[in-house]
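Task 17 of the worksheet. Students: predict the tertiary structure of the chain below and write it out as structure tokens. Keep your answer in the requested format; marks are given for formatting as well as content.
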Amino acid sequence: MGDDMNQFQETETAINRDIDRVFQEVYEEIRKNYFVTGNDDLERLQSAISQYVPRMIANKKWLLLDTTLNYLTEDAIRNLEGYESKVPNSFYQQNRDFREKRKVEFQHSESKNSVLLSPDPRFVYSAVSGVGGCILGGLIGINILKLEFPILPTFAVVSAIGGAIVTYYNTTSIAMQKIEEDVMEYLQKSQTQAKEELNKTIESYSDEFNNFLKEHISV
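Model answer:
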């Protein structure tokens, strides 16, 4: 950003600091509420995360946008101190127009994508963890846990079931870890995106402010 950005350097510094703080709070909140010892209902976890996290991020980004616009307005008004009253009065209308336009642009551009979670490794591992009876065991073991149909008590089937249940429970922690990795990656990308969007807002505001100065203040 060029020299014209100097008057909004404080805004840029402040909003980047705010973004880091807000997303750190989000990381901590999600880990505290979702990724806790004993939480092994992964279907419910996946459903809750895919519904809650994108909505929360959208709300946080909206608040950060509003904060950015407030910072910019304060910086602009400080830069207009000392000019005759008609100059800041003319600026107030342009400032309102910019804020409304930027919020509309934000609403249109905001992604509606859900959190992209990997397939549940428990089901993948059970389905490919061997051949013959072991594959059968994986399928039956999962269905036992979901109580979907009765099992014939033959020795071969019971032996396969035992192996499948062990595989199922052993990979639950892996599935939980993978979901957490997916969510953290989503949050990191959202944080980077927020910085890019809001710094572009600052740059756009600076351009309009400097055009305003050229039009209303004779040098």
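Marker's comment: DSSP finds six helices and no strands in the chain. The first helix runs from residue 9 to 33.
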